[in-house]
Amino acid sequence: MVITFDRFNKIKTVEYFLRCFNRALKLKPTDKHITIKIEKEFPTYPETIIPLSGILDFLRNKGFSLYVEYNDTPLMGTGMHKPYTIADNSYELLSPMYKVWKYNSPEEVYKIVDALVKHLNTKIICAKGVVEAFEWTVNEVMDNVIQHSQSANGYIMCTATSNSHISVAIYDNGIGIYKSFQGTHYRLQNSYDAIILAMQEGATRDKSIGQGNGLWGMSKLLASNKGSLSIASSEANVSITESNGMIKRPVSTKYYLGELCYQMGTLVDFQFQCNNEVSLTEVFGADYLYTNLNLESLEDENERISLKVNDFSFGYATRVAGERARTMAINCAIQSDYKQLILLDFSGVGIIASSFADEFIGKMIQHFGFIQFNSLFRIINVSEENMAIINRSIMQRSNIA
Question: Which residue in 396, 332, 394, 383 sits closest to 360, CA to CA?
Answer without folding.
Answer: 394
